[in-house]
Amino acid sequence: MTVETLVQRAQRRRFLKPFVGELLWPPPMWLMRQAGRYLPEYRETRAKAGSFLNLCYSPKLAAEVTLQPIRRYGFDASILFSDILVVPDALGQTVSFVEGEGPRLDPIEDAEGLARLDSAQTGDKFSTVAETVSLLRQQLPDETALIGFCGAPWTVATYMIGGRGSPDQAAARLMAYKDPETFQRLMDILVESSVDYLSRQIEAGADVLQIFDSWAGSLADNQFDRWVVAPTRLMVARLKEKYPEIPILGFPRGADQLSASFASQTGVDAVSCNTAMPVSGMVQLSEATGRVVQGNLDPLLLVAGGKQLDDRVAEILGAMKGRKFIFNLGHGILQYTPPENVSRLVEQVRSAA
Ligand code: CP3
């Protein structure tokens, strides 16, 4: 397949300009989890779909909810509507989403549980998601970039082993300590299937990828190198070999001081910073790595709104001006965010001088 060159796509889609080294002001912007329950039109489509996973596997409806925040706010990038837990679901693990409680999986406890995963059967579900990407490329404005994504192996594994979200990811960290061979096999399976999943998204029209490692911050530094850096580096290498024109954003949430070495060791083109990263840390990261930096407004401040929001946005913009920067939140948008606060934010970023 011939992918249009990045330089060509960056001429039409401003989101991509930082990735070809062009400084752009006002900076491109999008918000993590920009499609979701804070939007009444999302809640309506979500109700039509029945279950959350059904929404992920209904290309027309998934494309519709991806487009909703673009229609409202005109962000520079859209993100495919799906979920990081589509990968374990496609591997045959039982995954469900309990209303108001989050994901539930039938947990993998040992090598036997791992053996029940079946990499040979992922194709149907992955190609259904790829169909959403194709629909989106037809329906999106030509100037809007399309982000494909998956979870990083470590973060996906925390759900597969813990069976749900947890504050400390203890179940996965414990398995990684006690039975690193089994844990490594799980990483290998996830690297393999995630690369396949992302490749299909690229083939269907994704412009850029983001790898979400939401729980990267729970690991000691040696474990971070082994379970965050190493699998991500492998994925990036495999993807870059096939698709050198597709930029990759990494989001090692909570990596803090390890962010710069994460960037250089994994080979990602951009690092997304969470809220706890100081603005001065984003500046340093930009200088030390030369990569695109993305971040990092507190999602709770977007719920609060008002002058505090305006002041903090101005502070971030002031520090990042003149750098390869993408404006975003430090984590996903919260359900109770007033949509009018998002409008106010967009207006402020768009008028950045
Ligand atoms: O707009 C977008 O950003 C695209 C879609 C997207 C979703 N999840 C939709 C979703 C993306 C990129 C994700 C990533 C994701 N999913 C992550 C990584 C980012 C992060 O937030 O840390 C993680 C850890 C998950 C796993 C997951 N999915 C959890 C923990 C939950 C429950 C939490 C909650 O808010 O209920 C989900 C469900 C989910 N994924 C929802 C959405 C819109 C809400 C469920 C619903 O609508 O019923």
Word description of this protein:
The longest helix has 25 residues, at 180-204. Helix content is 52%, strand content 12%. It has helices spanning 6-12, 40-49, 52-56, 59-73, 86-90, 111-115, 123-139, 153-162, 170-178, 180-204, 221-242, 259-266, 279-289, 299-304, 306-320, 339-350, and strands at 77-79, 95-98, 102-105, 145-151, 208-213, 248-252, 270-272, 292-297, 325-329. Strands 1-4-5-6-7-8-9 form a seven-stranded parallel beta sheet. The chain has a single domain (6-350), classed as TIM Barrel (Alpha-Beta Barrel), CATH 3.20.20.210. The model has no long low-confidence stretch (mean pLDDT 97). With 353 residues, the protein is α/β, with parallel strands linked by helices.
Keywords:
353 residues; alpha/beta; TIM Barrel; 7-stranded parallel sheet; two-stranded antiparallel ribbon; 16 helices; 9 strands; 52% helix; binds coproporphyrinogen III
